[in-house]
Amino acid sequence: MFRIGQGFDVHAFAEDRPLIIGGITIPHTKGLIGHSDADVLLHTVTDAALGAIGKVDIGTHFPDTDEAFKDADSAVLLEKVWGMVKEEGYRLGNIDCTIIAQRPKMAPHIGDIRQRVAELLEADLSQVNVKATTTERLGFPGREEGIAAMATILLMKNE
Ligand SMILES: Nc1ccn([C@@H]2O[C@H](COP(=O)(O)O)[C@@H](O)[C@H]2O)c(=O)n1
Ligand SMILES: C[C@@]1(CO)OP(=O)(O)OP(=O)(O)OC[C@H]1O
């Protein structure tokens, strides 16, 4: 049995914030703002996993009106959702992620991010792909107002 899910998220840049993407803190002049640590990639992965098991989205499970999730570590939120995935009997088939950012250059960090996503999804590195693209200076990522991320996930279970 297979289930497919997709995720998409955007967070705006703000001064004096760390830039955390895929659980990795990336040196940059500014970071992303959110109710949580604003890890745009882990939110996207979380939404993709929730979509695949038909459980709506991250904001439904972890509302941004709840003080409990203020400055939350997005890795912890993903771990909770991955527990739900496993309760349904699924494991990762594969996931493909795209980070949409004009800057910073993600290439030096892609290996670490991929490793962290694989750990969180209890999967082999070969099941996880992470890539980055600019928007050729067009739109909000191009103006460096924020970063977007997208992911497609395939879950599997033996039946
Ligand atoms: N923030 C980014 C964006 C892109 N890359 C890498 O550069 C390649 C070319 O990007 P284009 O948007 O011009 O197609 C892309 O394939 C990535 O390897 C990056 O490291 N960080
Ligand atoms: C993660 C949560 C909860 O802290 O907050 P944000 O960091 O604002 O992230 P978002 O992707 O807007 O939605 C999910 C939220 O409920």
- Count of individual helical segments: 5
* Mean pLDDT figure: 98
Bound molecules: ligand L45E5XJ5, 2C-methyl-D-erythritol 2,4-cyclodiphosphate
Radius of gyration: 15 Å
Please mark out the parts with pLDDT under 50 across 5 or more consecutive residues, or reply none: none
Proportion in β-strands: 25-35%
Overall 3D form: globular
Number of domain units: 1
- Helical content stands at 25-40%
Q: Distance between termini? A: 6 Å
| H-E order | EEEEHHHEHEHE
CATH topology: 60s Ribosomal Protein L30, Chain: A
Computed structural class: alpha+beta
Number of strands: 7
Main beta-sheet annotation: 5 strands, mixed
CATH class: Alpha Beta
The CATH homologous superfamily: 2-C-methyl-D-erythritol 2,4-cyclodiphosphate synthase
Strand order in the largest sheet? 4-1-7-5-6
The CATH architecture classification is: 2-Layer Sandwich
InterPro entries: MECDP_synthase (IPR003526), MECDP_synthase_CS (IPR020555), MECDP_synthase_sf (IPR036571)
Pathway: Isoprenoid biosynthesis; isopentenyl diphosphate biosynthesis via DXP pathway; isopentenyl diphosphate from 1-deoxy-D-xylulose 5-phosphate: step 4/6
Binding site for a divalent metal cation: 9, 11, 43
Catalytic activity: 4-CDP-2-C-methyl-D-erythritol 2-phosphate = 2-C-methyl-D-erythritol 2,4-cyclic diphosphate + CMP
